[in-house]
Write a structure and sequence with these properties.
- By secondary structure, the protein is an alpha/beta fold.
- Helices cover 35% and strands 11% of the residues.
- It has eight helices and six strands; from the N terminus they run H-H-E-H-E-H-H-E-E-H-E-H-E-H.
- The protein has a four-stranded parallel sheet with strand order 3-2-5-6. Strands 1-4 form a two-stranded antiparallel ribbon.
- Strand 5, helix 7 and strand 6 form a beta-alpha-beta unit.
- Helix 1 packs across helix 6.
- The longest helix has 15 residues.
- The protein is globular and about 50 Å long.
- Its EC number is 3.2.2.27.
Length: 228
């Protein structure tokens, strides 16, 4: 984050107050000092807000909440669960693809690049937007959670209903203030290999999400990823 934050205009307007808060100044200082100390931070600076840049606020139809970015080389690029086309598909995402195949008959993609979902209104938001290379959860408690709470609050306040896909207890706790009388909140265990077989596989979230969108006069999401 430089002096002026580059951010898609609708989000910039909605979140402008956050960038003037003390916690965000402290977060910027923390990131600058880590980079100055030679630590590798993922994703790259211009990609911190990629989820917001690809999915303008008024276009959000579905929210998928992750925890923090992948911490391996070349993986994180600012969208939760997603990796670039030439990077091996991570285990959790393989389970997401398995569920898509069972639920909607969509064959698993040969890559893990989820940008086409984001461009259709699926906000692929991590709770924490940066991580140190090789150290999962290393940037928790530094202020990102407060910022992404503000993101969720803005989505919750939208005039149209939104689907929240909350996989795992962390995501479920994160979205505790979503108004479930207006929005569709679907919960399941995390798709990680450690927990996918305890209820994520078979949850049918993708068909339920599309049925809800259609019922409310919105275009369903085409979950089939293009060949990368």
């Amino acid at each position: 984050m430089g002096g002026t934050v580059k951010l898609e205009e609708s989000w910039k307007a909605a979140l402008s107050d956050e960038f003037s808060q003390a916690y965000m100044t402290e977060l910027k200082s923390f990131l600058a000092s880590e980079i100055h100390a030679g630590k590798q931070i993922f994703p790259k600076g211009p990609e911190y807000f990629a989820a917001l840049d690809l999915t303008p606020l008024d276009k959000v139809k579905i929210v998928i909440l992750g925890q923090d970015p992948y911490h391996g080389d070349g993986q994180a690029h600012g969208l939760c669960f997603s990796v670039r086309p030439d990077v091996r598909v991570p285990p959790s995402l393989k389970n997401v693809y398995k569920e898509l195949a069972t639920d909607l008959g969509i064959p698993p993609a040969q890559h893990g690049y989820l940008e086409s979902w984001a461009r259709q209104g699926v906000l692929l938001l991590n709770s924490v937007l940066t991580v140190e290379r090789g150290l999962a959860a290393s940037h928790r408690g530094r202020g990102w959670e407060r910022f992404t709470d503000a993101v969720i609050a803005q989505v919750n306040a939208l005039p149209h209903p939104v689907v929240f896909l909350l996989w795992g207890s962390y995501a479920q706790k994160k979205a505790q203030f979503v108004d479930s009388s207006r929005h569709l909140v679907l919960k399941a265990p995390h798709p990680s290999p450690l927990s996918a077989h305890t209820g994520f596989l078979g949850c049918r979230h993708f068909s339920q999400a599309n049925a809800f969108l259609e019922k409310n006069g919105m275009e369903p999401v085409d979950w089939q990823l293009p060949v990368a």
